[in-house]
Design a protein that fits this description.
Nucleotidyltransferase, domain 5; 10 helices; single chain; six-stranded mixed sheet; 19 strands; alpha/beta
Length: 365
């Protein structure tokens, strides 16, 4: 599918905790300015009214619209557009048929999906994955990647799996719920306790012996870590290192099951200069065994695509020619299995919107 040649217009929504941001996309491009409406509500009816207002104002600006498609937090039955009980949006309880409600009002198809899934889809069709494949082609490599694992680091730890530009949703709309993986640093805890804003703040507060309420935000902690602000640099570095170690274990398990490139987004990805080297180092570590023989953590080798040297090694062809037994013929063989890991090319918000747009076009066919 070439999303840049499709002339159907899709309305999208970025449902954040502070604002609801409405956009329209056509031929892969955003039409006009986005519309922002405060997300603060006390009742479900207030929230539904704000959705109608935002989508209607956006529709009035662009004219004919073919569908609505957007990301929304779960748990949810995304296929049927039903949202479950949400901690961050307590007005959603006991199952809310949000998709059917909007379909009835606007009389057009409505598609809802997980933000991690849509982020990954956006980066698959117009971001990280095609960018890597173009670089490989430029370096005379015949390798073409089709699988992408997307992870988002922010308020929580999200993920998505995309193969051949199609989301792997799972039978229960619960695929790639990476936040439910175990935490390698703390037994019996979710990985999200470390891979999240609260995780970064908890470590920094603990290391500096301050109350969590007085802990600076991760963006400021990052500036401390790189020496741009005063503070406990060692504690700041540890807060992001712990996040990276916990995230790397979950990512390694995902790669082992899915085998694809990895793209990272979310607000905390802004600290990638600290996070990425640690993640890649952890991915390429070895397991121990009871007979003292080493075992590579993954069957593939990970490369930091934001590091020039690592990127060049990844892009460099590593094929060799081997002889076919009992013949005079040879065949090409690549003994090094590689995956690249890097930061969002589109930006998280744009990637989610492009993913929502692409998902709608796929479902409309």
């Amino acid at each position: 599918m070439n999303i840049f040649k499709d002339n159907r217009t899709i309305l999208t929504l970025d449902a954040g905790g502070t604002n609801l941001v409405f956009s329209a996309i056509k031929a892969g491009e955003f039409l006009g300015e986005e519309i922002k409406i405060s997300a603060e509500v006390k009742t479900l009816d207030e929230f539904l009214d704000k959705l109608i207002l935002g989508f209607q104002q956006t529709k009035d600006r662009v004219g004919e619209v073919h569908a609505i498609s957007f990301a929304f937090p779960g748990p949810a039955d995304y296929k049927n557009g039903i949202i479950g009980d949400l901690e961050n949006l307590p007005v959603f309880k006991d199952g809310v048929a949000l998709g059917p409600f909007l379909e009835n009002y606007f009389n057009i198809p409505v598609f809802i999906n997980n933000d991690g899934d849509l982020f990954t889809l956006g980066e698959s069709v117009g971001g990280f994955l095609p960018d890597v494949n173009k670089l490989l082609q430029k370096n005379s490599s015949k390798k073409i990647y089709k699988n992408l694992i997307g992870v988002t680091l922010g308020t929580g730890f999200g993920a998505g799996l995309v193969q051949d530009n199609k989301i792997i949703e799972g039978d229960n709309s619960a695929s790639a719920e990476i936040n439910r993986m175990s935490n390698t640093l703390y037994l019996n805890y979710s990985v999200e306790e470390s891979v999240s804003i609260r995780g970064v703040k908890r470590v920094y507060a603990s290391e500096t012996a301050i109350a969590i309420e007085k802990c600076p935000e991760p963006s400021y902690i990052y500036k401390i870590a790189i020496g741009q602000e005063e503070g406990n640099k060692e504690a700041a570095l540890k807060s992001f290192k712990n996040l990276a170690i916990a995230a790397a274990d979950a990512i390694a398990n995902s790669i082992t099951m899915f085998d694809g490139l990895v793209v990272i987004g979310g607000g905390l990805s802004g600290a990638h200069s600290i996070i990425l080297p640690v993640i890649v180092e952890e991915l390429n570590k070895q397991f121990s065994s009871f007979d003292n023989s080493p075992l590579q953590r993954m069957e593939v080798f990970a490369y930091n695509m934001n590091d020039t040297n690592c990127s060049e090694d990844f892009l460099r062809p590593s094929t060799v020619s081997i002889k076919i037994p009992r013949s005079d013929k040879s065949i090409s063989y690549n003994p090094v299995k590689k995956i690249g890991i890097g930061i969002s090319k589109l930006g998280t918000t744009k990637a989610i919107a492009i993913g929502a747009y692409t998902y709608a076009l796929t479902m409309l066919k």
